[in-house]
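The freezer alarm interrupted the setup, so I double-checked each line after restarting. Inputs confirmed:
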Amino acid sequence: MAHALPPPARQTGPLVWLRRHFFATWYDAVFTLVFAVLIFWVLDNVIGWAFVDAIWRVENREMCTHDAGACWAVIESRGRLILFGLYPYEEQWRSTIACLVVIVTIILSCLPVFWSLRRLPVLWIGGFAAFVLLMRGGFAGLEVVTSEQWGGLSLTIFIFAAVFVIGMPLAVLFALARRSSMPVIAKSFGLIIDIVRSLPLLTLLFAAAVVVPLLVPEAIQGNKLMRVVVAFAIFFAAYQAEILRAGLQSTPQGQEEAAIALGMPYWSVVADVLLPQAFRNTLPSTINQAVITFKETSIVTIIGFFEVMASGNAAIGNGEWGNQYIEVYVFLALIYFVFVFGLSRYGAWLETRMRLGHG
Amino acid sequence: MKRQITNLIAAGTLALSGAVAAQAQDQGVLDTIIERDSLLCTGHNGSYLGFAEVDAQGAWQGFDIEFCKALATAILGSPDKVQIIPVSWAQRFPAIQSGDIDVIIKVTGWTMTRDTELGLQYSRPYFIGPFYVMSKTELGATGIADLEGGVFCVNAGTTIERVLTDYMETKGIAYEPLAFEKGEELRAAFYAGRCDAIAGFGPFLSATRINAENPDDYEILGDVLALEPEGIVVRQGEDDFLDVINWMVSALLMAEEAGVTQANVDEMKANPPSASVERLLGVTPGVGERLGLSDDWAYNVIKTVGNYGEIYDRTVGDGSRYKLPRGLNNLWNNGGLLYPLVMD
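Predicted 3D structure, all chains:
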């Protein structure tokens, strides 16, 4: 009769865990120690600079010397400039609400409940209309604020959201057209995509902002912000179309053929069979593209828009706060981080969810 | 002070815009401004030390902004009728061609290419932009020649890099250049002692100096590397508008020369000390008409922003944080290069 051995003694507890993971061999131990010292040293410096030795209030402005820690007083003094740009001071509450409206719209449209052709457009049109009305004013006694004066975080978020919302349908159109069975359409859209991709974004935006008004009659010019958003959206669409095309091509040919054989109309084949799979397969690259686009919005400063990065530069561009650029850049980095990190986490959540839905 | 990359882009788009700049203007800019009841003037996409800055309330201020206000006051009677449009360096010329702005007042050097090929017209210089060298006081240098062999830090890709090279080559002074992409980096390197001297535009050096822990450790040397006469820019063919601008600059200088200030302008108007002050302040009837303005246009300007010296002092001079010496921007009788024209 076989003798069952008793189970090995359970080795648990923090010390065992520590030994197994960090001190299993002598070189593990060396690495652990070296990095522990390094991490401690970095953290100590960062925390010392950002918190312990930091100067928080404008009253203590004189204490902001070169030996002291972070001078967060600059954020107290110039924070509103960074967040709102040139938007009139007394009216900045409008910019705050408008910014929140767009953020809520973005969050809502991330929820699967809103993913229908009826709900999503309503949500977006409503969200954008509310944003523009609030920012622009001119009704119910609100002062008119032209788009030249829009700025700061709300402008950044508006540009991003508008580019994404206009660019995504365009991207779908480009991708489908490039795969079209009609050679004229396929070739010409291929050419459009390649031309747009071969131009630097800066040139495209510059042309939209300053060259278009010289060439196009005033009636159909639209305002500068609109032109820039459209140009940016076309740029986004050219890249996103290629990502989607990869997704479309990765769906087995048989599925499309089967759907057609079943007598499904073209749009149904696209909307119900191809696109959902294409989007799922390319989700990581799409999130990637969204993140890049969010960060690239700062490029509009070259055509005189006061988005959050330009306002940050304006905040440090005077004699009084000229030395506090590190603090302002850290503040800006945190703003970008919050949004980009949120976007990445959302992408990860979406991936899990889709995998679950797919069995 | 202008980045080469953005200049390249500007040049590209300008080649295009120059071709279509001939777009017919039905009416002059001056009439458009009066009809619109507001003047579209240049700001900056950020802040440009001393010249166009944004304060904590988001309001524009600075030397160039004061001139925008002065121009709006001369034409429309009120400094509130100016609208500051933020534009980048690269964008300013296309923007004036397309009518996004009426006038460029943005430390814009008067160069031949711009004047001839870009379809622009310059006013008489309203500011002489000097490039200086600042060094550490402990080196005891009295001129640039004393810094032979030293490390000179500059902003990469800007006019100053070329200006410094030219100067040093002409004078045969050996030096070691060290370029930095951003102004902040440049300053940090200078404070940290990596450079013996930095070369740059006057206001930038002043700001660097006053922001140092101990400003007395640094000294701006008297040698001028180069000058860039800065003019106010309008589209080619806007003669009436340019007249107004030239006489506005002149009026500000004339007021300083005659001792007319923001504080005493009412007194001077009631009791003009000379015939030229009489004409300046519009006591003599008909003087404004010649420019298409009201007779008291210059009075309004001085009442609103003060004379040239007062503007300078408040924004970049002793009354500001920058403490930039008047130097060449003084009146001719104080050793400077500026002078009013004759108002007869």
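Quick read of the result. Chain A is about 70% helix and 0% strand.
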